[in-house]
Structure to design on (254 residues):
């Protein structure tokens, strides 16, 4: 029997998502959750307080994504480059990601969210991997929204890891190099079932993609918003979707 899912909780101000046609709503939204450090600094707080405040923004955006009908949401929670931060911040971010996944997994499961870890195993804390795998297993049959937690993720690392796997298969004569296609390469990415990104959002006013979902975002619409991540909520997502709805996507066609 199909599991009964809980409806997304409406926004505390009661505001509803903008009315758009289905084709104006992106299936896959990727978000670079940037600006936690600056948010904290402007309040005289430690950078880690900014990350903590970012949890609420993410959860509200998950509810808002469900309300408007987004099917897949990818969030950049720890990049392969974030290991260059101070040991204290790296330690905090590892523990924080683990705690957030642990404490939010039931709520996300009730909403019908399928949690998926996207990233590289090497260097990532085993306790974080264990937590991610438990969340994946708990939510594996959910269909409302796929939430890709991109942790220890880098676009170049992903392509490098795919190239290594492909080269190994070619040496074993399991694949013919000339038979490779753009579609067959996706089998070697961290999440082969991930859709192409339709809408790529970055908060904080920075206008960079920072190595996030390079392959998958080849034709994504980019929306850069001035809000710092802890100040974002579902209205930020909806605003980006309204901007997206106005864009004309041609995918190389005239
Ligand atoms: C970017 O802000 C944020 C990160 C590198 C960490 C990822 C995001 C979070 C921890 C927020 C929520 C995540 C979860 C799992 C709930 P920054 O530190 O680069 O900010 P700055 O550019 O202002 O210094």
């Amino acid at each position: 029997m199909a599991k009964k899912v809980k409806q997304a909780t409406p926004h505390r101000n009661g505001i509803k998502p903008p009315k758009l046609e289905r084709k104006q709503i992106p299936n896959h939204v990727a978000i670079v959750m940037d600006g936690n450090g600056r948010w904290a600094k402007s309040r005289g707080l430690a950078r880690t307080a900014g990350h903590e405040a970012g949890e609420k923004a993410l959860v509200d955006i998950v509810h808002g994504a469900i309300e408007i009908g987004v099917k897949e949401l990818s969030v950049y929670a720890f990049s392969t480059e974030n290991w260059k931060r101070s040991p204290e911040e790296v330690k905090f971010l590892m523990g924080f990601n683990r705690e957030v996944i642990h404490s939010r997994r039931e709520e996300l499961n009730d909403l019908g969210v399928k949690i998926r870890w996207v990233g590289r195993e090497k260097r990532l804390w085993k306790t974080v991997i264990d937590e991610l795998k438990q969340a994946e297993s708990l939510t594996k049959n959910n269909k409302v929204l796929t939430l890709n937690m991109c942790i220890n993720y880098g676009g170049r690392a992903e392509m490098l890891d795919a190239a290594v796997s492909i080269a190994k298969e070619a040496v074993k004569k399991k694949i013919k190099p000339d038979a490779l296609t753009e579609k067959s390469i996706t089998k070697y990415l961290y999440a082969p079932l991930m859709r192409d990104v339709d809408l790529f959002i970055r908060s904080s006013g920075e206008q960079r993609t920072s190595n996030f979902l390079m392959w998958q975002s080849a034709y994504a619409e980019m929306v850069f918003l001035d809000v710092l991540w802890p100040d974002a909520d579902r209205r930020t997502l909806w605003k980006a979707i309204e901007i997206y709805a106005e864009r004309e996507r041609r995918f190389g066609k005239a």
